[in-house]
Specification:
This protein is of the alpha/beta class. The chain is built from 12 helices and 16 strands. The protein has 2 domains: 4-129 and 297-360, NAD(P)-binding Rossmann-like Domain (Rossmann fold, 3-Layer(aba) Sandwich), CATH 3.40.50.720; 130-253 and 361-378, Dihydrodipicolinate Reductase, domain 2 (2-Layer Sandwich). The chain has helices at residues 4-7, 23-28, 42-52, 61-66, 82-91, 106-119, 133-143, 178-188, 205-210, 327-330, 332-345, 353-371; strands spanning 9-14, 32-38, 72-75, 95-98, 123-125, 150-158, 192-200, 219-226, 232-238, 247-254, 257-260, 269-275, 285-291, 311-313, 322-324, 377-378. The strands form 3 sheets. It has a 9-stranded mixed β-sheet with strand order 13-12-11-10-6-9-8-7-16, with helices on one face. A 5-stranded parallel β-sheet has the order 2-1-3-4-5. Strand 4, helix 6 and strand 5 form a beta-alpha-beta unit. Helix 5 (82-91) runs parallel beside helix 6 and helix 6 (106-119) packs antiparallel against helix 12 (353-371). The longest helix has 19 residues, at 353-371. The radius of gyration is 21 Å and the shape is globular. It binds nicotinamide-adenine-dinucleotide. Residues 14-18, 38-41, 44, 60-61, 76-79, 81, 99-100, 128, 165, 328 line the site of nicotinamide-adenine-dinucleotide.
């Protein structure tokens, strides 16, 4: 592995809404020498530059791609840009990290795989759900065989998108299924064979067409059949007209232990442990405990460890301290670490374009199924 002093990576962070959260994380990583801001909103870009004491950056991707000193671009622009921008970044000879979903069409996923393969540059889909502390703990329990045989997985992402930018209006919920589905696929090391999905409820004419999608459903639910596994992954995606506080989590059941996501999104998980029936009784006994998942900090670059929880940073060049949030189970520094390790170690990232396609394509197929009254759709292999 290269030493930090060898590399001195220049990372462009493109899109400074959610993207702002990643600026201090990259700045703190010992492999990174510069963070370059890319954002068309001049006022927003200037504010972020002042806050973190970095250069004024660029208004758009074209200028950033012309800058030969930039090694990698992390895309956090609106979803409709993801696939085209990622392909442009790789074609420009730079590494690319991209917020989910990697793409919203089968064709774009195929293009992405072809371009990553041809250019030899690194691509990583920055899927927060498989780096959050809840998933990391579930995965450790599964490896230790503490859960018993896995028998059922449920994922849900419920978020109200009213008032979000126009590109979100009427967005087909299953096109964003990666947060709810990926933990099952990662845990079992598999991909989706087929899906049957349904739309539930209805959107009014104005909402269903506002973003250019013509999606009639506020909620989509799907049953995903997994390759080489008898576990069904059931996923609920609700973006509109569903009175429920934001949640993005999973419920995982084994023959010995079940894990349930907290009601309030962040917080301890419910652990159900099943033992045999009481003497002469009927039905197994199940004990329920509330458990705070551990952080597993030892695998994370030391300088990034503070970002696993909300923290206050004052890095060189910053005039004032800044509070940095740590949403999505403290996953952001782990994602950055993996992306930078893949670059410096000269290997594919853990969520390269092939795995990104395996985690994104099932949702695209699920929306097709919902639009066809639950027809079973075979999800093609991408390997
Ligand atoms: N858990 C997660 O992984 C997670 C959470 C939140 C958002 N996201 C994803 O991150 C991305 C950004 O989310 P957001 O909430 O900040 O979105 P947003 O629409 O609020 O903001 C995106 C930012 O990108 C900028 N932008 C618009 N067009 C651009 C362009 N052509 N080039 C560069 N920048 C451009 C906008 O001005 C804005 O500052 C989205 O794709 C979203 O799906 C992922």
């Amino acid at each position: 592995m290269n030493t930090p002093a060898d590399t001195g990576l220049r990372i462009a962070v493109l899109g400074l809404g959610f993207g702002q959260e990643f600026v201090p994380i990259y700045l703190s990583h010992p492999y990174v020498s510069h963070v370059v801001l890319v954002e068309p909103d001049d006022a927003r870009r200037a504010e972020v530059a002042a806050k973190f004491g970095v250069g004024s950056g660029y208004r758009g991707i074209d200028e950033a791609l012309r800058d030969d000193r930039i090694d990698a671009v992390h895309i956090l622009a609106p979803v409709p840009f993801h696939a085209d921008f990622a392909i442009q970044v790789l074609e420009a000879g730079k590494h690319c990290a991209c917020a989910v979903p990697a793409a919203t069409t089968r064709e774009d996923l195929e293009r992405l795989i072809e371009v990553e393969r041809r250019t030899g540059k690194r691509y990583m889909m920055m899927e927060t759900s498989v780096y959050g502390r809840e998933y990391r703990w579930a995965s450790a329990l599964h490896r230790e065989e503490a859960l018993g045989d896995l028998t059922f997985y449920r994922g849900a992402h419920i978020q109200n998108l009213d008032g979000f930018p126009s590109y979100w209006q009427g967005f087909p919920p299953m096109h964003y299924a990666t947060h709810a589905l990926s933990p099952a696929l990662d845990l079992l090391g598999t991909s989706v064979e087929s899906v049957t999905a349904h739309g539930s409820g209805h959107l009014d004419e104005a909402t269903r067409t506002a973003g250019g999608f013509d999606n009639p459903f506020p909620t989509e639910i799907g049953a995903f059949r997994l390759r080489g596994s008898d576990v069904i992954a059931e996923v609920q995606m609700s973006f509109f007209r569903t009175a429920r506080e934001y949640i993005e989590g999973f419920w995982l059941y084994g023959s010995r232990m079940g894990l349930e996501w907290p009601t309030d999104q962040e917080g301890p998980m419910l652990v159900h442990t099943m033992s045999g029936p009481a003497e002469g009784g009927r039905g197994n006994r199940t004990a329920v405990k509330v458990v705070e998942p551990p952080d597993y900090l030892e695998s994370l670059t030391a300088e990034l460890r503070p970002f696993v929880h909300e923290t206050v940073v004052q890095l060189p060049g910053m005039s004032d301290p800044v509070r940095v949030g740590a949403g999505h189970g403290g996953s952001h520094p782990y994602l950055v670490d993996e992306f930078l390790d893949a670059i410096t170690e000269g290997r594919r990232s853990r969520i390269d374009s092939v795995r990104a396609a395996e985690w994104t394509l099932p949702g695209i197929c699920a929306h097709e199924s919902a639009m066809n009254e639950g027809a079973r759709i075979t999800v093609p292999t991408v390997r």
